[in-house]
Design brief:
Elements: H1 3-21, H2 23-44, H3 49-57
Organism: Curtobacterium salicis
Pfam families: DUF2273
Protein name: Membrane protein
Amino acid sequence: MNTTVVGMAVGAVLAIVALTLGFWAFVVVAVAIALGGLIGRIVSGDVDLRRLLDVLRGRRSSS
């Protein structure tokens, strides 16, 4: 599955949630999708958690 298909699926889910449940449900689902994506990238090794935390704490630059 390529990124275009995944992006379309996420957009469809968010659109359905926004239309049926309202704005705050849309926000909760969007945050859950973002967190799930981040956790998936951490588990797969694409994101180094220690470096990410250092950047968020201001100890290192992101570049």
